[in-house]
Amino acid sequence: MNISREKIVSHTADPYPAWPPGQRYGAAIEPGGLIDLPAARAWFRRLDQAREAGLYTFALPLAGQSGRPTAYGDRDLISFSTYGYLALNGHPKIVGAVHDAVDRFGSTTGGVRLLTGTTELHRQTESALAAWLGTDDTVLYNSGYDANLAAISSLFGQADVAFVDERAHRSLLDGCQLAGVRVRRFRHGDAEHLDELLAEHRAHRGRKVVIVDGVYSMDGDQASLKELVNLKARYGAFLLVDESHALGVLGTGGRGTCAEQRVDIQEIDIITSSLAKAFPSVGGLVAGSNPLTTYLRHRSAPFMFSSASAPANTAAILATLDVLVSEPEHLERLHRNSAELSELVRRVIGTPHEVASPIVPVILGDEARAYTWARILLDDGIYASAVPAPAVPAGQSRLRLCATAAHTSQDFALLEDGLRHCLALESAPEQLLSFMQDVTPPPLATTSGDVVAGYEAAA
Ligand SMILES: Cc1ncc(COP(=O)(O)O)c(C=O)c1O
What we know:
The structure is a single chain. The protein is built from 17 helices and 13 strands. It is globular. By secondary structure, it is α/β, with parallel strands linked by helices. 44% of the residues lie in helices and 14% in strands. Helix 3 packs antiparallel against helix 12. The site of pyridoxal-5'-phosphate (PLP) has 14 residues, from helix 5.
């Protein structure tokens, strides 16, 4: 597969057409202006470095469905970083349900959930999700991000302490910030450290909540729920588990980390999840007891101050539940492919990886190295996300690879060749240089020497 180089070279150098071609972003920061911020300077410097080297592979405007097969311009790509684990995007039953929902309810809900935005479809989907998960009820939100903000900020406040795994998703931390709750981070997956922190706060008079991801999005490992359930019981804490990368993926019928680890879901006080990963939709949920869900419907801001999720998205969620039950083959294929991806990475890169989910990181360390690998793979027809800090710890930049139910043996062979290509170019510096010369766009222009000098000095 030979992806059109010029198009990729052009995106990796000038991804945002509103900017004059070749302009250095940092040069446009006006001293004292709106974007004259340390964070903006730092980001623009990173962006300019990546663009100048032809390594900006982010936000490729795809020409087709996002999923295992996708397209950029008129070229096909095989994605090894999509969140669509079950490869259900475009599934005829789900697309059919979306069409029916649009025919019946139209394109919008015309209001927030508490007022005029709740349709029968929303309630039916919430009940079906709850019956599937084994909780009293669920509340739908527009995204997993909203669900986390809603749950944490409605339940906890300044008098309380949140014990958060250091690799927990950003939306969980943002929820804590919105709540004003005091945050203590514990070392990733380290129950002993959590135990120590909880013990330090034994006499704390406010409420305590332990917050984890069921599956960690950048590492692919699972939280150890039994240990967490024991700890929360011992210290009188509550437990929130974000199941975004586990629902549809782990456990019997894809019911998530509790089902996988044989933990009664009733032991978890608050379950949250995105419905935009294995579920081919956009949305999020909070699942739990009737008192919890009823309270959230009357207290959580995203339920009352943000428009209800579109009928199309809601119908896609409901139809996915049906597909999960009636077509278990997707999950079976996903599990086989997860094992195959893990074995491939072990064979080629040499890093052992315990298969706990479809997510298999290739940790490369240096940010530039991760960008370079993503760029080489893109030229080879593989779309793989480079993930730098702060999304992962500094010095642990990586490719975040993941398997889907739809990957084929040819896809794995393509990926294996691509990863070997990266290794081969790295071990032959002159070949890497010539590859980079081939893909490196013209140098970026500066618009004002003074501004650039200020920008460089401050960065
Ligand atoms: C663990 C986790 N929680 C929450 C979210 C946010 O979900 P959404 O994309 O539906 O807002 C994500 C998204 O990447 C996630 O990985």
